[in-house]
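Translate structure to sequence.
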């Protein structure tokens, strides 16, 4: 995971522990964030744990959003808001494009975009105006 805040980059792996470490670092800067978007749901679960370990409340003090809509997103406390991507459609599209490329090596490279959608659960709330 790489994230930027106030012209500083933090990097981590795509795992639970690096989500926790990222929160520890983010909470040490002046003016900590009101929301964190993690690279995947497993990291976001670690972010949630890091927020709780710091004595903060999600979403009241910090909102968290993950990515993938992995099963863990429904087991966290609070349940994780996440971005769902069409995994099955990714695989089908990749296989189709690979087979087409094998059949005709002269085909130009192409990009295909597949839609994602936001699944709002309990880990996000509007930013409180002060």
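Result:
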């Amino acid at each position: 995971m790489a994230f930027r805040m106030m012209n500083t980059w933090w990097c981590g792996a795509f795992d639970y522990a690096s989500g926790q470490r990222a929160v520890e670092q983010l909470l040490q800067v002046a003016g900590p964030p009101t929301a964190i978007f993690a690279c995947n749901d497993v990291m976001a679960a670690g972010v949630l744990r890091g927020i709780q370990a710091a004595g903060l409340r999600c979403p009241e003090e910090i909102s968290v959003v993950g990515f993938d809509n992995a099963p863990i997103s429904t087991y966290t406390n609070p349940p994780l808001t996440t971005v769902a991507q069409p995994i099955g459609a990714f695989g089908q599209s990749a296989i189709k494009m690979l087979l087409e490329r094998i059949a005709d090596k002269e085909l130009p490279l192409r990009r295909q975009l597949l839609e994602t959608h936001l699944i709002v659960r309990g880990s996000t709330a509007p930013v409180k105006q002060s």
